[in-house]
Specification:
The chain is α/β, with parallel strands linked by helices and 391 residues long. It is built from 10 helices and 8 strands. 51% of the residues are buried.
C-alpha cells in the first residue's frame, strides 16, 4: 500500500467509512497520491508487481517439487510480476491483502472479470452472474472494487477489463447466449470504465488476440465495438488502450506466423501479436479510441502446439514466456506482462463435469486438468520446464 498525500487525512477517511478498515502505511509506501498519466506508458515508471496471491500459489507448488534444481527455478517464478484476477464477487477479498506489500515504484495488475453471462461462447469460464443480473455486477462487483481502489490512492493500478467479452460480440453473436448477453456486456463494461476511471488507475480493454479479431474481416468491426463502449463510458481519461493474448498462446513476432501455412492464412494478416497490435491499433485510432497495448506473454514460450487458432484450453507442451519488460520493439506495445497466472487451469478435462468445455478435451489440451482457476501442479511444472527464456 502506498500512503496518501496526508497520512492523517487518509486514516480519517478510512476510519469514518469503517473502523475495521483503518489502514497504516506499508513499507515503501508513496508519501502522496499517485497520479497516472494514461497518455504515457506508465510501465516505464512502474514495475509490474509480483502479487502476493500468485506468490503463495507458486510457493506452495515449490514445496511439492522434489527435484532441488527444478524447485530452485520454480521459486523464481514467484518474483515475476503478474495480474491478480478478480473473477467473482467473493474474490474481491483478495485485493486488499495484495495491496499491503506494493512498493512505491510498483504497479498492481488486476483483471476485472465477472460480467453477467460471462464468456458467452464457452462453458469452462462461465461466471457466477446470470444474464440480467447487471445491477449486481454494478453494485456488488464494480462498486466494491472502486471503493477499495479509492481507499488506496497512493498505489498505482493497471486494470485489464473483462477478457473475452466484447470480442465475443463481434464473432459469436450468432449464438443465442451471446445475443442475450450483448446489452449487459456493453452497459457493464461501460460502467466499469466509468467507475474505475480513477487518478491512480490505468485501464486496458480486452481485445482478444490476432487469431480472433485479427482476421481481416474482424479488425474494423472489433475496433468499432470497443470504441463504441469507450465512448458510451464518456471517453474515460484513464483508458490507455487494449490488452491482447490474455490467457493466450500466440507468439509476439514469430515470422512466418504459427498458422501462416494454412490455406486460410490469406484472410488473416495478423499472424503474430505484433502485427495484431499494429493493425488493430490503427483500426482503433480510426474508430476514435486510445490504441496502446499490453500483451500477455505468460504462457507463449512455445509455439506450434495447437491444431487451430481457436484452441484455448490448457495447451499441452506450453511454456512460460517473456517476463515483464517494456522493451517490446513496438511503439504501440507498452509492455509484455503475465496476465494469466501460469499453473491455474483454463478448464476441466472431465467430460462429466457441468462446466466441461469440449476445447478442454481436444487432443492438444493437457489432461487431466481441474476446473478453471484451480491449481494444476503438473501443468505448472511443464510450463517451468518449457520456459522460454528459461529460468
Amino acid at each position: 500500500m502506498k500512503f496518501s498525500k496526508s497520512a492523517l487525512l487518509a486514516l480519517a477517511t478510512a476510519a469514518s467509512a469503517s473502523p475495521t478498515k483503518r489502514q497504516s502505511a506499508a513499507p515503501g509506501a508513496c508519501p502522496s497520491p499517485v497520479r497516472l498519466d494514461a497518455s504515457t506508458n506508465v510501465f516505464r515508471q512502474y514495475t509490474l508487481h509480483a502479487n502476493s496471491f500468485y506468490r503463495a500459489e507458486v510457493e506452495a507448488a515449490v514445496r511439492q517439487i522434489s527435484d532441488p534444481t527444478l524447485a530452485a527455478k520454480a521459486a523464481k517464478v514467484a518474483d515475476v510480476g503478474s495480474f491478480l484476477w478478480l473473477d467473482t464477487i467473493k474474490n474481491i477479498e483478495r485485493l486488499e491483502p495484495a495491496l499491503q506489500d506494493v512498493p512505491c515504484d510498483h504497479i498492481l495488475g488486476v483483471v476485472v472479470y465477472d460480467l453477467p453471462g460471462r464468456d458467452c461462447a464457452a462453458k469452462a469460464s462461465n461466471g457466477e452472474l446470470k444474464v440480467g443480473e447487471l445491477q449486481r455486477y454494478k453494485t456488488e462487483f464494480i462498486d466494491k472494487i472502486a471503493e477499495i481502489i479509492k481507499r488506496y490512492p497512493n498505489t498505482a493500478f493497471a486494470l485489464v477489463i473483462e477478457p473475452d467479452s466484447l470480442p465475443n460480440l463481434v464473432t459469436n453473436i450468432d449464438l443465442t447466449s451471446c445475443q442475450q448477453s450483448a446489452s449487459g456486456y456493453r452497459e457493464g463494461v461501460a460502467y466499469a470504465l466509468q467507475q474505475l476511471n480513477l487518478p491512480n488507475v490505468v485501464m486496458y480493454l480486452d481485445a482478444g488476440h490476432g487469431g480472433w479479431l485479427g482476421w481481416d474481416s474482424n479488425l474494423r468491426p472489433g475496433a468499432e465495438e470497443l470504441a463504441s463502449v469507450y465512448k458510451r463510458a464518456g471517453s474515460p481519461s484513464q483508458l490507455r488502450g487494449f490488452a491482447t493474448n490474455v490467457a493466450g498462446w500466440n507468439s509476439w513476432d514469430q515470422t512466418p506466423g504459427e498458422f501462416a501455412s494454412r490455406s486460410d492464412a490469406q484472410w488473416n494478416s495478423c499472424q503474430n501479436e505484433k502485427l495484431y497490435v499494429e493493425k488493430f491499433g490503427a483500426a482503433l485510432r480510426t474508430a476514435g479510441m486510445p490504441n496502446h497495448a499490453i500483451v500477455d506473454t505468460g504462457r507463449n514460450g512455445v509455439t506450434g502446439l495447437r491444431q487451430e487458432w481457436g484452441h484455448w484450453c490448457n495447451v499441452d507442451g506450453a511454456g512460460f514466456g517473456q517476463r515483464f519488460t517494456t522493451n517490446t520493439g513496438s511503439e504501440l506495445c507498452d509492455a509484455f506482462v503475465w496476465v494469466k497466472p501460469g499453473g491455474e487451469s483454463d478448464g476441466t478435462s472431465d467430460p462429466s463435469a457441468v462446466r466441461y468445455d469440449e476445447f478442454c478435451g481436444k487432443p492438444d489440451a493437457f489432461k487431466p486438468s481441474p476446473e478453471a482457476g484451480e491449481w494444476n501442479q503438473a501443468y505448472f511444472e511443464m510450463l517451468l520446464k518449457n520456459a522460454n527464456p528459461p529460468f
